[in-house]
Amino acid sequence: MELQFPSILRSFLGNRVWRKNPKERKIYLTFDDGPVPEVTPLVLDILDEYAWKATFFCIGENVKKHPGLYQEILERGHKTGNHTFNHLKGKNTGLSEYCDNVKYASKYIDSKLFRPPYGKMTQEQQKKLATDYEIIMWDIISYDYSQRLLPDEVLSKVKRHSRNGSIVVFHDSIKAKNNVLAALPQAIEFWNSQQYEYGLL
């Protein structure tokens, strides 16, 4: 499993944000696929405990189901981003359908940040969406959703690859629940011990 896209691919994929300022000792913590009542409140409690803020890339359908939980994310001082309405894979979806899905999600998610599910979208989709959104990718993906990884393995990979300006992806999803709840506090403790501060996108 590659936690980071190779630099040559990053440049090839064009107008996407992979990492923030490498001169600033900050970690940009993000969560994908929520909000869900089984996980998101527990993640929010962990973030409160450590006084860290994050950006939640939400699925519109989940926000529609749980609007109060979406508001709670904002009220606790975090930011949100658009992750499509139905977690669409861009490569398997036509241009109009994909962009309309993102636009529909924006009825429920008030943000100009967008992250494509699976990190996959066509150049045409990217070009069209980039006129309205800042497209946020990642410097490190934790793979916390993988059933093949234990929390210690997730943590080890995140610690090994963390660097100035890293955009780090965890998931506030049911699939990732065990790994994220176990690894997240230790990851924040590690970043604190290394004098990183949180950054918000």
Task: Give the SSE map.
Blueprint: H1 7-12, E1 26-32, H2 40-50, E2 55-58, H3 60-65, H4 67-75, E3 79-82, H5 95-105, E4 113-114, H6 123-129, E5 134-135, E6 140-141, H7 151-161, E7 166-171, H8 177-193, E8 197-198
Parallel strand pairs: 1-2, 1-7, 1-8, 2-3, 4-5, 6-7
Output the structural class: alpha/beta
CATH H-level homologous superfamily name: Glycoside hydrolase/deacetylase
Give the end-to-end Cα distance, rounded to a whole number of Å.
26 Å
Order of helices and strands: HEHEHHEHEHEEHEHE
Helix content: 25-40%
Radius of gyration: 16 Å
What value does the average pLDDT take? Answer: 94
**Any idea of the CATH topology?**
TIM Barrel
Taking pLDDT < 50 over at least 5 consecutive residues as the criterion, the unreliable ranges are 1-5
Q: Give the name of the CATH architecture.
A: Alpha-Beta Barrel
Helical stretch tally: 8
Bin the strand percentage: 5-15%
Count of beta strands? 8
User: What composes the largest sheet?
Assistant: 6 strands, parallel
**Overall tally of domains:** 1
